[in-house]
Amino acid sequence: MAIRLPGSRHVGPVVLLRSLGSGLAAAALLAGCPENGNGGPDVCRDGPGVAAVRLADTLLPGSLIEMSGTGFLAECGVLRAVFRGTLDGRPVEVEVDADVESATLARYEVDVDLQAGFAADRGRFVGDVGLRQRAADGTVRESSLPVQFELAVVATPRVGSVSPAAVTLNAIVLLTGDGFLEGFEGTSEVVLDGTFRPDGGGASRAVTAVRLPTTLVEPHDRTRAGFAYSPRIAGIAPGVFEGSLVVENRHATGAVESSAPLAVTLTVGRSLITGLSPANPSLGSIVTLLGAGFIGGASDQTLTVRLDGTATPHGGSATTVTDLELVPRFVDGGHAEYVVVPVATGGELAAEDFGFAWGTFRGTATPVLRYGAELVEGLGMPLEIALGPTKQVVHIVFQAAFSDTIRLFGLRAVEAEVRAQVLDKFRRTYEGIHVEARETEPEDYYPGGYAVLEIGGPDPNGRGLFGYDNTPGKDVGNLRLHDRVGGTNAEVQEDGYPGFGGVFVESFLCWSSHPPAGQTCPDGVSDPEFDRLFDPVRNREVVAGEYPGGPDPARTAEIAAAVRALGNVIGDTAAHEFGHSLGLANPYGPAYLVHHEPPGEGCLMDAGSYRPFGERAELPGFSPATWCRDDRPYLETILPVR
């Protein structure tokens, strides 16, 4: 039985060694090839198609070989990697289990026991590498590409040069040479010995056997590796390191190989901040500080940023800022992340560190580094921050139940088009208001800086509601940027509902004169226009190829009308429920008054019973619902566009 590497991604490969031209060993029973459920072509017919093979020039125990292509389908049979060619002129064929990551990616990790696979532990292989698959009926399908590589037990590292000569803390130092390790092969470490002379004439420090990990610059390319110039070498002060560098390979097999020592001189500069991105963040933003010489990521290392200058709130007067300290999160030597944390003060939101939501800072930014007992200031550099105005980011989540529910409308095949119409309607409703709707989860805002609105299927409250804002109370001033309209909230119980929030698309079928059996619906809400639009697609579900470029123009028009109407109704309802989370309606009225009283013509924030289907769907003869009374002035006050 072959020995496996610690942490190997696949277990117990069966290794077959064959001379070229010999028959294959009997295999275990493999799965057959499924046919298309509609009687279409056999998806297994073509077998695996290998389009690219990525591997190092020298394969070692633990080396990873990656194959990409098409048709890597486990349901069509077990896929196995095949090496077929010559090893130092001797014909060989090696077949091993492959790890199939997806229909387009497969990997094989070279076994520690090279003798078990190649009957040799060194030599030059010339031939093909690919994938072989055998179906239950004995059909063998195979695809491969030509490759050449050296097979070896160990790699001896060689370092030819080190660059750049001038670095900052945690900057990447590039090693050029050969024989560097990656992944499960083992580790390559630099070992530094020498002397560090700090700037300013302080006492020199001895650097003795400091070990730092290296990483290949490009996967499988053993000729270039890098390591971060760590504070562990000589602290965090600027200065000059002179000494020797050795690369030590520690193989997974236990073997150790070292390079010849190389004399190096590295000049370490001061840390500095060169800018930030984005340049005009808003509350809740994750701001990336750009620069050099950043530290962190360990309990004995901290980075803070001192701001000195003037801060000017929008429409206000400038004030002097001295020793304002920001605490970012270390990413790497040139990047750190800072969150513009919102806090509520006096009924308004403001940035915790600046005291306003909208304004500017102009001055200098100085990185301050602490490493153990050592404290060093970097260079003070000019910095301008244009903060705000407040933007409400909302992540619109289409739940799995949404996909199931639009099948009831006959529109599952055009789900993408319905979603696009939902987002379009929502965004048009908030046009001119600083609300940004996203279908993907924000990565540039922290979780406390954006809201979530869920669009699902049935009403989990069991009331046939079109939607429900279950956020905790009327948020006048939008002091909670992180509201979640969805899920369940135990705080929302006063109106008698269990507290499940979101938009409930299945309830829209209550507008039909023939809703699905068992559907919970309020009395008297059906609308003949609903059946006119949706009966053609409910009675004959849309299938692939019918829209948008289908062969029947009349059918295409039916589908387009249904997609537009359903997307508008969902987007309208989402905009209404989200308006509640922003503090509407009647933001300056009693806390319990959340709809317009009395209702008005075409008002988005009227109670649902006053809002007809045609208005929500934007049918001919109806104007889109809009903001009424003090809705829009209020929204423009709390979420102004720059």
Main features:
642 residues, six-stranded mixed β-sheet, seven-stranded mixed β-sheet, Immunoglobulin-like, 4 domains
Note the overall shape.
flat
| Alpha carbon gyration radius | 33 Å
Number of domains: 4
Which parts are unreliable, with pLDDT below 50 for 5 consecutive residues or more? 1-41
Name the structural class: mainly beta
Helix amount: 10-25%
Distance between the termini: 69 Å
Count of discrete alpha- or pi-helical segments spanning 4 or more residues: 8
* Mean pLDDT across every amino acid position: 90
Strand-residue fraction? 35-45%
Biggest sheet features:
7 strands, mixed
Q: Based on DSSP secondary structure assignment, what is the total number of beta strands?
A: 38
How would you describe what is shown here?
With 642 residues, the chain is mostly beta strands. It folds into 4 domains: 16-151, Immunoglobulins (Immunoglobulin-like, Sandwich); 158-268, Sandwich (Immunoglobulin-like); 273-385, Immunoglobulin-like; 393-586 and 628-638, no CATH class. 13% of the residues lie in helices and 37% in strands. Strands 32, 33, 34, 35, 36, 37 and 38 form a 7-stranded mixed β-sheet that branches. Strands 1-6-5-9-10-3 form a 6-stranded mixed β-sheet. Strands 12, 14, 15, 18, 19 and 20 form a 6-stranded mixed β-sheet that branches. Helix 4 packs across helix 6 (553-581) and helix 5 packs across helix 6. The radius of gyration is 33 Å and the shape is flat. The protein starts with 15 loop residues before the first strand and ends with a helix.
Brief characterization of the structure:
This protein is 13% helix and 37% strand. The protein contains eight helices and 38 strands.
